[in-house]
Structure formats: structure tokens, C-alpha cells
């Protein structure tokens, strides 16, 4: 494993990047991100192994304090309990021994106890093998509390008025209201001389995702261009944080950029692009910078196509999520949660740094304890995401709820209004927190999976059950589909193309609704969409059809999808139809595993 440190550190307040690269240069796994300045790196050379470990795994003063306190407690317990000293020594083999100290008069009274401990350790280690510990020998560093207090560089966000948003296409015809950017990987050309950064871009409202490739020199020129725009604008002072507070790597003078340099640039590029994409169109400069970014990510014709598709969606669908009031709320939340100069955005980005270091702790832990640590880290991620969502809901301006209630009061109840607002906040918070952590989440979920069980399950679905007729799964003749439940299989296959938990769960619900619709057509009636307790179809009728759809959905990793959704689903979702259909999905995979 290669540990690479960014060579251009910013100020002490901001974080450098530590990229943990795999053997394949094209696959990147950014699992740790310490905060170390030049002064800290010079001091680290003179520090012990424990201090270096703390500095590498820490992102704040609080975490370093608790890590140091834990080390002192471990050393004290090791002196009192020799067995714990042996366990610590066995589980941390990579740490160097403490430096030997010259004998002095002040340390004579400690020598008998240390010698006695060493004798007990050596005698016990030579006699009987030690019992395995009941819990992981390495604990995750404690999560610092979420800080939502304002400061000099953290301010309350300014809201965009509904009237301004409604005239968006007239005021800003060349830009889209929000694009979520993620740098997913770096690829080299066939000659291995040029590297391209592959970015996934998602339109905020239409949810259209596309892929673009950019060389680093193109992104470097883009940053230099907007820096010139800010220098020549009277509003440029408002955007100085993009260049002073956000790290950005320098261009390499070497003809062929090394793989290590390519890997460590990814995270800082993604952070910079997401901050630029979250700019509010308050001034002509902001509008020009956002428009320049979007033209860098796609063509002007494609932006026009997205605008036309958004209009078509508004006129053909009746979903409450297509209301302009909810889109207004989603855009304001997107700006607030992805900007480093707002309270919510800075808090989210601080948590991203901390969570990446927790993943590094899991990666460095002994294999016997990685699974439990991974489950704990995923649970902490879900809890923190829920806390951020609750904070956003509690501090939501009254103008949003008032406007959304007015727009939905004629055809929806107040409970449905609250559910629509909660869903909008959940979607935006998950995008701000889980999209940058997609690699870390995948890494942790894979640690919780039994590789042999997953391989056997996939092999059984592909070779033993795929292609079997509907009657083989126990589907009654009256409920069999002439098109083999094609739409239900399609939505299940789309689960692997979605990134966020709510997107995957949405495809799962759509698949179930297609099953109800197909069975309603087969019986010559209308199906009750998403109602598992209807008299038309009960759970005994639904489960065989769902098993058939899962087997024929061509899911490459169904077991991974199950574990991902079980770990990342919002607690409130388990109580409704989403939780019901997730239970059916787990039951379908259990049936497949039992039929092997």
C-alpha cells in the first residue's frame, strides 16, 4: 500500500490529502485525509511511532487528544496486567518499540515493575496460546460532535427567493440550477503518457447523469480563468475563499506525471469543483463562474436539452417532487450543504475528513476485527447523516414550508406535505455526505460480506435459476406475465447504477409497483400500486414473482446491494412500504441461497 502526501500544503487550518492507492493505478481508494502542515511534518520526524500514528489518523485536536489519552491508558494497563501487554504486542506488530532511555536516578523505582512485567509476558507467551479477544483490538477514534455554530468563515446561508427561482430560465438561460460533481477515477491513455480524470455529473432536478473526462491541465486552466474573472470583477472579494481556503495542486514539471501524483489530486479536485458548483447566482460574477463550470462539464446544447426535459417533466407528471417550490428548496439546500463557507457545508466537509480517517483505521486493523469495525463505521455514518438531516429540518426557514404547503394543500394532506419536505432534505443531505464517500462506503460494505457466500449466491442465480419458467418459482397461472415482468426486472437492474441509498430504494419500490401493475393487467383489473396488504395480492403471491424478477434482473452483486441497503437505509424508511419491499428483497435472496 502506497501512502502519498500532497506536496503543497495550505495553511494549518486546512487539510492536505493522504491517498491510499491500490496496486492498480487506474483504481483509486482515498481512505485517509490527515491535517498536517510543514511544522507538523518536521515535528513528526522527532516523535515516536505512537505520535506519528495519532497524527496520521487524526483530523482535529479533539481526536488527537482522545488518541493520546487512549495510549496512556493502554500503557498503564499493560503495566498492571501483563496479559493485556501481550495482546497489544501481538495485535500491533508494525509499531516500533519505544526508544530506550538511559538509566537515571529518577527512574530506578520503575525498573523492578517493568522487569517483572517482561518476565511474566515471556513466561506466559511460552506456555499456552492466548485466547482471542472478544472485541476488536483496535477501536475507532471517537467522532467529534457536529458543530453548527457560526464563525468568521462559517456564516448563515442566504436564501434565494421563490420569485427569483421561478424566473430562472429567463434570468439564467445558459446555466442549470445545480450540478453534483464527483471525480470517480483517473485513467491513462494507451501510451500511458496522459491521464484523464473521469467525472460523474448529475443534474439536480432531472437526475440525468453523464460522464466527462478532463486532463489536469484543463482543470488547472479553468481555475486560473475564474481567478482572473474574480480579479477583474468588483464582486471578486466574495470568491477569494475558493483560492485561499481550498487546496489545489500545482502542475507537474515532469514530462510524464507519476501515478502517485495522479491519485492524490482526485480529492482536492472534487472538493474544488463541488464548491464552485454550489455558488449562488447572486451577482453577475457568480453567474459567470457557474456558467463557465457547466460549459466545462458539458456543452451548451446539452444544457438546453436538460432545460427542455425539465419543462417536459413538469407538464406530464403529477408527482409532488416536480413542484417548483420543492425544486426551489432542493436548490437552496444543495448550495448550503456543498459550500465550505456556510455552517452546514463546512460541518459536512469536516465530517468527511474525519470519516475518511476512520476508514483508514479499519483498513489498518487486524483482519479478525475489520468486519466489526466496518459495521460500526457504517452505523456511525448513518447516524451522523440523520443528525445533519434533523438539524436542517429544525433550522429550515418558514418561507419554504409556507410555500410548499400552499402549493400542495388542495390535493395533499399536511402529513404528505411534511413527507415531501423530509424527502427533499434527505435526498440533498445524502448527496452532500455520501457521494464524496462512495469509495469508503463500498470499502466498508465489502468488509461485512462473506465473499464465498456472495460468489455462491451469484453463481446460483446465473447458472441454476436464470431462464427457469415462471411456474418453476410457484407463480400461479392467473398471475403470470406475458412479458416476463420485464419492467420489474429493469428497475431492479438499475439499482446498481444508482449511488445513493434513497435512489436504490426508489428503484426497488418501482420494481414492486410494476409487479402489482402487471398482475392487475393479468387479472383484468387495476392494481393498487405499492399496497402489499391489498386483497388483490398478498405476500404469498408477491414473493414468488419478486424472486423471479430478482433472478432475471441481471444484478451483478445482489448480495452487496442487500448489505448496502440494510446498512444505509434511513430508520424511518423501515416502517413503511420501503422497509416492506426491502424485507421482500432479503427474503428473495434467502430463497436463492437455500436452493443452492
Task: Describe the protein.
- Pfam families: PX, VPS9.
- It comes from Aphanomyces astaci.
- This is VPS9 domain-containing protein.
- GO terms for molecular function: guanyl-nucleotide exchange factor activity; phosphatidylinositol binding; small GTPase binding.
- This protein has 596 residues and is mainly alpha-helical.
- It has two domains: 162-444, PX Domain (2-Layer Sandwich); 449-594, Up-down Bundle (Glutathione S-transferase Yfyf (Class Pi), Chain A, domain 2), CATH 1.20.1050.
- The chain has 24 helices and six strands.
- It has helices spanning 38-45, 49-57, 61-80, 82-91, 111-127, 162-166, 168-171, 216-231, 241-244, 259-277, 284-297, 300-316, 324-338, 343-364, 367-394, 398-408, 414-434, 438-447, 451-465, 486-493, 501-522, 539-551, 558-568, 577-594, and strands at 2-5, 18-21, 28-32, 179-188, 195-203, 209-215.
- The strands form two sheets. The chain has a three-stranded antiparallel sheet with strand order 1-2-3.
- The longest helix has 28 residues, at 367-394.
- The radius of gyration is 27 Å and the shape is globular.
